[in-house]
Amino acid sequence: MRITILAATGGIGSHLLDQALAAGHEVTAVVRSPQKLPATRARVVAADLADPDPAALRTAVEGADAVLSGLGPRSKSDAEAGVVRRGTSAAIAAMREAGVRRLVVVSAAPVGTVPSPARPNPPRHDPGDGFLLRTVAYPVLKAALRPNYADLARMEDALRDSGLDWTAVRPVRLTDQPLTGHYRTAQGRNLRHGLLISRADVAHCMLAALDRPDSIGRTIGIAR
Ligand SMILES: NC(=O)c1ccc[n+]([C@@H]2O[C@H](COP(=O)([O-])OP(=O)(O)OC[C@H]3O[C@@H](n4cnc5c(N)ncnc54)[C@H](OP(=O)(O)O)[C@@H]3O)[C@@H](O)[C@H]2O)c1
């Protein structure tokens, strides 16, 4: 397949790049700092996704079978500026112009219960979250990372409004453990007793979603 990867220098993004190339895909890597990329046979397009040049993004997605995004804020101010929503919305616009339909992005496990302009009254609890997560861990996390989750919730609004064949993967806490290919997923909900997942396995799941038409228009919870 021809795959465009947004934020290919990130934790998940670099695994997406390595795994997509290893699987024999033809890859375009969209990065704001090309000098951070190790030597690669991917085509490289430079773009700052906080304020993207539409022409550069259009070039990056043109002819792709799918776009995968590992975009995430590097700082609190990035999150407050809504970098994920902005970059993803720009990618959606470029994809619509170029006639590219498949988009798989990374979101986060708590986002299903975060209010957003299009979902002002989300469910109070995710059915996959156990008592301690609901009552202790997520309230603390949501307070600490409010701008991050608000940005991701707005990004998911943009996906639902896009008319594209989107999938949002919602991982629990990320680790740098190696790829296993052994993890649990659930459509539209989080996983019971799932607290950790490696960035490598999230990338694996995102690539696997390209062969799963049933994941289109869905969120996917993922945990070890
Ligand atoms: N940490 C967790 O436990 C956790 C759990 C669930 C979900 N998540 C979500 O998963 C996301 C991805 O995680 P990760 O560990 O792979 O993140 P990461 O290593 O921080 O990677 C973020 C990527 O986004 C890129 N980026 C940021 N701002 C950009 C901009 N203005 N223009 C272009 N690229 C930009 C970064 O590029 P540079 O390399 O140039 O900075 C980097 O490639 C997180 O941001 C978060 O939203 C995290």
User: What's the overall average pLDDT, rounded?
Assistant: 96
Bound molecules: NADP nicotinamide-adenine-dinucleotide phosphate
Gross CATH architecture:
3-Layer(aba) Sandwich
Binned strand content? 15-25%
Main sheet attributes: strand count, strand direction, barrel closure:
8 strands, mixed
CATH superfamily: NAD(P)-binding Rossmann-like Domain
CATH topology assignment: Rossmann fold
Structural class: alpha/beta
CATH uppermost class: Alpha Beta
Which stretches of 5+ consecutive residues score pLDDT under 50? none
Calculate the terminal CA-CA distance, rounded to whole Å.
28 Å
Order of helices and strands: EHEEHEHHEHHEEEEHE
Overall geometric form: globular
Strands side by side in the biggest sheet: 3-2-1-4-5-6-10-8
**Number of separate domains:** 1
Gyration radius (Cα, Å) is 16 Å
Topology of helices and strands:
Elements lengths: L1 E5 L4 H12 L3 E6 L11 E4 L7 H8 L4 E4 L6 H5 L2 H16 L3 E5 L24 H14 L1 H15 L4 E7 L1 E3 L8 E4 L8 E3 H11 L8 E6 L1
Parallel strand pairs: 1-2, 1-4, 2-3, 4-5, 5-6, 6-10, 7-9
Antiparallel strand pairs: 8-10
Helix pairs in contact: 1-7, 2-4, 4-6
The site of NADP nicotinamide-adenine-dinucleotide phosphate has 27 residues, from helix 1, helix 6 and strand 7.
